[in-house]
Amino acid sequence: MYNFEFEQPSTVAEAVAALASEDAQALAGGQTLIPTMKQRLAAPGKLVSLSGIAEMQGVSSEGSSVTIGAATTHAEVAAAGLGAISALAGNIGDPAVRNRGTIGGSLANNDPSADYPAAALALGATIVTNAREIAADDFFDGMFTTALEEGEIITAIRFETPDAACYQKFEQPASHFALTGVFVAKSGSGVRVAVTGASEEGVHRWTAAEDALNVDFSASALDGLSVSSEAMIADLHGSADYRANLVKVLTARAVADC
Predict the structure, then answer these.
(1) Burial class for 132, CB neighbours closer than 10 Å (0-12, 13-18, 19+)
(2) In the chain, which end has fewer C-beta atoms inside a 10 angstrom radius, N or C?
(3) Distance from CA of residue 100 to its chain's centroid?
(4) DSSP summary character for residue 220
(5) pTM score
(6) φ, ψ (nearest 5 deg) of residue 6
(7) Alpha-carbon dihedral 203, 95, 19, 3, rounded to 10 degrees
């Protein structure tokens, strides 16, 4: 690698101040950034670690509202007893990844095959930053792109506990990323279906399925639907048609398991 400065602030305010420096970059769990730096595909002059900020860690609830600190690891989310999102977290990567990677880092990176973006979108979560609150529907903006501005960091994720939810993932066996993944959540405001891993546009909602499931919340409600393969990812792991079919299959499984 190469020389760079390293700071480990203890508060959000200190982190924001450190990130104001030229060529500074936030470091969450480092599961994407560090390998990228090793390959010299990224060369920040300063890394600002978020792992020591207590106010960004842990899980809390108030009534039906759940808040997860952005620096909370996948392993901690998995152990928190949060139903579908805990089950999702427990199946991310391997133990080493789960004990270093964080929910905030995953959402900020917005890998098109990551799991948490689908959970946040399906749950209608609010992404809390040092500067504002952003609805999940407005946060994700295509592959590796979000609504975050320069120097803005995610501090927490907040969502209402759903009446029912399930995540189904067809894994790429080497990386454990989602070749395709579908998160279904049902609440008083309706059904939301979020898809990850399949589209060149990144995580997105399958609104046709939502409409059908709001009328009849059963796997059979999806029988007459089809998913277009247009703009679906095609690579050595699966064709666009294959991923399109997986979206429907996994959505039906998720509904059946809710």
Answers:
(1) exposed
(2) N
(3) 15
(4) G
(5) 0.94
(6) -135, 125
(7) -120
Rounded CA separation 227/85 (Å): 25
CB-based contacts of 121, cutoff 8 Å, min separation 6:
136, 137, 140, 183, 192, 194, 203, 204, 205
- Which residues of the chain fall short of a pLDDT of 70? 1
For 176, phi and psi rounded to 5 degrees?
65, 10
Residues of the chain with CATH 3.30.390.50: 164-257
Class of domain 5-160: alpha beta
Query: What is the fold of 164-257?
Result: Enolase-like; domain 1 (3.30.390)
Tokens of 158: 């907040």
Which token pair is 38? Answer: 């090793």
Per-residue pLDDT tens over the stretch 42-57: 888 899 999 999 999 9
